[in-house]
Write a structure and sequence with these properties.
By secondary structure, the chain is of the alpha/beta class. It contains eleven helices and eleven strands. The strands form two sheets. A seven-stranded parallel beta sheet has the order 7-6-5-10-8-11-9, sandwiched between helices. A four-stranded mixed beta sheet has the order 1-4-2-3, sandwiched between helices. Helix 7 links the parallel strand 5 and strand 6. The longest helix is centred in the last third of the chain and has 16 residues.
C-alpha cells in the first residue's frame, strides 16, 4: 500500500548480514569469550556460596584447648614467608587457608608439605574475596594460617608442678615487657635452665602470640605461661607460699652472684629495658639485684638479662 515504505523499522531489503552503521556487533557477538570459569569462581553460583560458607565456618570454629586457664585471642598469620616460618618453627595452628588457583611456588609447596606432615591442621581452599575479608585486606599472598587462642596456666599451677617433681620453684615474672620476641626468648631460657614457668600481666605486656611462639623455638609447648590481672598481688601470693621475690634492677643492692636466695624457691622479676621495674612491683621484691657488667654497658635486653640470671640460678642449684 502507498506510504508503507515510510513505516519505522520496516525491512526494505532481503539481504542478510550487518546493516550499515551496525559497527560489526553481530560479528563480535560470535567471537569466543575464553573458557567458562569453574562453578566455585562464579559469584552467584551455588558452589561458590558453599565454598565461602565453609571457609567462614572454619574461621570461627573454636579449637580444642591445650591447658586449663585464661584464653588469649586467636590470631591469623598472613603471607607466604610468615606462614612457612610459623609452620617450620612449630607454632600451633588449626587451619591453613589456601586461595583457589594460587600460583604454586616453592614457599606454597613447602607450607602445604609442613601442614600435611603435622596431620592435625585442616587445609581449606577459599576464594580470594573471603581471604581478603578474613585478613581485613592484608597482603596475604594466598596463604593464611589460623593460630588458636593460647591457654594460659594458673599461677599456682607453676609452683604445684615444681613441688610435685620434688624441686624448688624457679619462676620468671615479667613487668612491662612488651616485645613478643623477648617473651619467647625468656620462655626458651626458662625451659633451658630448668625453670617452671613464666608469669606475665594482662595489661601493657606481651602475650603468647605467634611471634612469641616462634622466638621460643618450640619450648612454649612444654613451659607454661601464666597471665595475671595484677602482677603485684600474684607476687604477694607467691611470697605467702614461701618463695623469695628477686627483682632485677640496674641499681640493685646486690649482684646476682652474691645472692644465695636464688638457689632456693624463687621468683625472678624482669622489668622493661627502658623503665625497669614498676614502683609497686619493686616495693614487693624481697631483694633487688644487678648483673655485674665490667664492660660498662648501662643495660641489657630483657631476654639476655633473664638468661644470665637463670643460668646463675641453675648453676647454684646444681
Amino acid at each position: 500500500m502507498a506510504g508503507n515504505s515510510q513505516r519505522r523499522n520496516r525491512r526494505t531489503s532481503n539481504k542478510k548480514g550487518a546493516t550499515v552503521g551496525s559497527g560489526g556487533q553481530r560479528r563480535r557477538g560470535l567471537e569466543g569469550k575464553g573458557p567458562t570459569p569453574k562453578a566455585e569462581d562464579r559469584k552467584k553460583h551455588k558452589k561458590n556460596r558453599i565454598a565461602t560458607y565453609k571457609a567462614k565456618q572454619a574461621a570461627t570454629r573454636r579449637p580444642a584447648p591445650r591447658r586449663g586457664g585464661a584464653k588469649g585471642p586467636s590470631e591469623m598469620v598472613v603471607g607466604r614467608n610468615p606462614v612457612f616460618e610459623a609452620l617450620r618453627d612449630g607454632v600451633p595452628a588449626t587451619t591453613l587457608y589456601v586461595q583457589q588457583y594460587i600460583d604454586n611456588d616453592e614457599r606454597v609447596r613447602e607450607a602445604l608439605q609442613l601442614a600435611g606432615e603435622r596431620g592435625n591442621i585442616n587445609l581449606m581452599e577459599a576464594p580470594r574475596a573471603e581471604l581478603d575479608r578474613m585478613t581485613n585486606g592484608l597482603n596475604h599472598q594466598g596463604l593464611v594460617l589460623q593460630v588458636p587462642p593460647y591457654e594460659y596456666a594458673d599461677p599456682q599451677d607453676l609452683t604445684a608442678a615444681a613441688y610435685d617433681n620434688g624441686e624448688d620453684p624457679l619462676i620468671v615474672a615479667l613487668d612491662g615487657v612488651t616485645d613478643p620476641r623477648n617473651l619467647g626468648a625468656i620462655v626458651r631460657s626458662t625451659s633451658a635452665f630448668g625453670g617452671h614457668g613464666v608469669v606475665v600481666p594482662e595489661r601493657r605486656a606481651a602475650g603468647m602470640t605467634a611471634g612469641a611462639w616462634k622466638s621460643s623455638a618450640g619450648t612454649a609447648a612444654r613451659t607454661p605461661v601464666s597471665r595475671v590481672t595484677n602482677l603485684t598481688r600474684a607476687l604477694e601470693a607467691y611470697k605467702k607460699e614461701g618463695l623469695t621475690i628477686v627483682g632485677l634492677a640496674a641499681d640493685g643492692e646486690h649482684t646476682v652472684e652474691e645472692l644465695d636466695q636464688i638457689a632456693g624457691p624463687v621468683v625472678i622479676v624482669i622489668g622493661s629495658e627502658g623503665k625497669g621495674l614498676g614502683r609497686l612491683v619493686g616495693e614487693t621484691c624481697d631483694y633487688r639485684v644487678r648483673i655485674s657488667m665490667p664492660g660498662g654497658a648501662e643495660s641489657l635486653n630483657a631476654g639476655v638479662a633473664a638468661g644470665i640470671v637463670l643460668y646463675e640460678a641453675a648453676r647454684r642449684r646444681a
